[in-house]
Amino acid sequence: MTLRVEEITREQHLAFVAARGSASHMQVPSWGEVKPDWRAESIGWLDEGGRIVGAGLVLYRPVPRLKRYLAYLPEGPVIPWHEGELRPWLDPLVAHARGRGAFTVRMGPPVVARRWDAPTVKDAIADPAAGRLRDVGADETEPRAAEVVEQLRRLGWQQGADGDTDGFSAGQPRYVFQVPFAGRSLEEIRDGLNQQWRRNIKKAEKAGVKVVEGGLDDLPVFYELYRETAERDRFIPRPLGYFQRMWTALRAEDPDRMRLYLAHHDGEVLSAATMLTVGTHVWYSYGASTSRRREVQPNNAVQWRMMSDAHERGAAVYDLRGITDTLDEGNHLLGLLRFKAGTGGRAAEYVGEWDYPVSRLLHKAFGLYMARR
């Protein structure tokens, strides 16, 4: 099989993703508009007949004072990772990026390696001898993932650093929590929630919490809660403009691509969250809440409304995004893992992000530069 990679139009890119049913929200054209510091390009893999058989969004980040770029495909590209040899797909990708001035190609193959069911995660959290999720026996192992990793190494790709000590990668999260929806009724999904989740949803309903969809004008309200959350959970918040840019770019591409939900109680917004959709995959993207009146359980109310809406729109999976790998009781992120595990879904480990050094010298220099920032 001989493939070539070339730039494709936005319409061709979107048509390919639609035909596949789904892809990461970071692998559609509009995501490039969310990242103004990067130059975005839609690329396609074309077979001998000129048919598009793969696609990806490449973000090019310039190196200070050099006309060279880091070429990044977050959670992509969209190619048949589970079929046959990868060389015919990845060699033309590297060649194309080299022609664009890239010194390194970085990608995040959307390939799951292992999964842990919610009861397994719960038992691991309760086990004082369990230090990290990666060391806990998985309920399911994907044999093809090991083949993908072996091929990547053989082709000269290098696995990126696993990120900080909490298990979040420096790029996209390697560990996520997902709730399967395909073939399940909403009642079955609700029955899959743990007892505390079901109780909290009822508490919110009895307390009169109302969850509504918001619009662009409601983003400042979301943002004030988000800033409070950032201070409480000790992370650096993105600016308001980032979310306004997301809203404008993603919804211009598809009105269902991004939604905003707000939980009201007694005239005050107590919790808010954004939801992203590409085909049958739905993500809980950003969440925000105040510490006030937490007893009325607005966070559970928001999540259940988003899950209900996602199910109504035909979602196959509801993705709660990143979770911590650590099971240390003293880690402030463990509470988030407990919250997500209460949905009754599954923790998943991806194969991580991988780099191909087009220029080994510049690749090494860039790594040193990033480490000193």
Automatic annotation (TrEMBL):
InterPro entries: Acyl_CoA_acyltransferase, FEMABX, PG_Glycine_Bridge_Synth. Keywords: Acyltransferase, Cell shape, Cell wall biogenesis/degradation, Peptidoglycan synthesis, Transferase. The keyword Metal-binding does not apply. It comes from the Bacteria. The keyword Signal does not apply. Belongs to the FemABX family. This is Peptidoglycan bridge formation glycyltransferase FemA/FemB family protein. The lineage of its organism: Bacteria, Bacillati, Actinomycetota, Actinomycetes, Kitasatosporales.
